[in-house]
Amino acid sequence: MSADSRLYMRSAENNRKEVEMDTVNGIAVGSAAIVKVGRNEIEVEVIGTENGRWRVRSRANGREFTTMKFERIITVPAAEAPPEIATPKPAAPAVEAPNEPVMPEPTISAPAKKLSLLDAAAKVLETEAPLNAKELVGKAVAAGLWIPTAAKTPEQSLYSAIFREITGKENPRFKRSSVKKGSFELIRQGD
């Protein structure tokens, strides 16, 4: 037996193992799955196997690449999928209520736009002043004007945002307090 024929037999053996792996894992050509590439999850379609890896095509941009594992299977192709038992349900007879007034569906108003921390600070300063950045953040959260994010230092972010507005805008809403060091006041129309 020549080396070429042994190599051919091994590759045929590997192909059989790959086919068995397909049926065991429920993955077949045409299946849709999620693959993790870096930290991103990408929806792909399985298009074949190649050297013990899966050949897949991204559904978003059509790029083809290989992968060794899947995060999860979304769908199995119809030829491979187990048959579902479908029993037709009888249609319910349509019954109309005579002379009932038609009630319009209630309209759902869009939720109020979420305020930025800078806008929430301006609302807080309308009621009381002067306040420093830490007090402004605390009062904005307590009043429900701003929902804290995962940021570690919202006070510093607010402080720098206020200073950017003071120095950069032609008509800023804030000014440095002359009464209390490190605090801010709202500029009123008459100021």
Q: Would you kindly provide a written description of the structure presented here, covering whatever features stand out?
A:
The protein is α+β, with helices and mostly antiparallel strands. The protein has 2 domains: 73 residues, SH3 type barrels, CATH 2.30.30; 70 residues. Helix content is 31%, strand content 19%. The chain has 4 helices and 7 strands. The strands form 2 sheets. A 5-stranded antiparallel sheet has the order 4-3-2-1-5, with no helix packed on it. The longest helix has 23 residues. It is elongated. It starts with a helix and ends in a 5-residue tail after the last strand. The N terminus is likely disordered.
Question: Which features would summarize this protein structure in a list?
Answer:
alpha+beta, 191 residues, 4 helices, 7 strands, 5-stranded antiparallel beta sheet, two-stranded antiparallel sheet, SH3 type barrels
User: Helical content, roughly?
Assistant: 25-40%
Mean pLDDT: 76
- CATH C-level label of the largest domain: Mainly Beta
Count of all domains: 2
Order of helices and strands: HEEEEEHHHEE
> In one word, what is the shape?
elongated
CATH architecture level-2 label of the largest domain: Roll
Biggest β-sheet, characterized? 5 strands, antiparallel
Structural class by sheet pairing and helices: alpha+beta
Oligomer status: single chain
Order of strands, widest sheet: 4-3-2-1-5
Radius of gyration (Å):
32 Å
CATH topology of the largest domain: SH3 type barrels
Number of helices: 4
Which percent band covers the strand fraction?
Answer: 15-25%
Low-confidence segments? 3-24
Total number of beta strands: 7
Distance between the termini: 99 Å
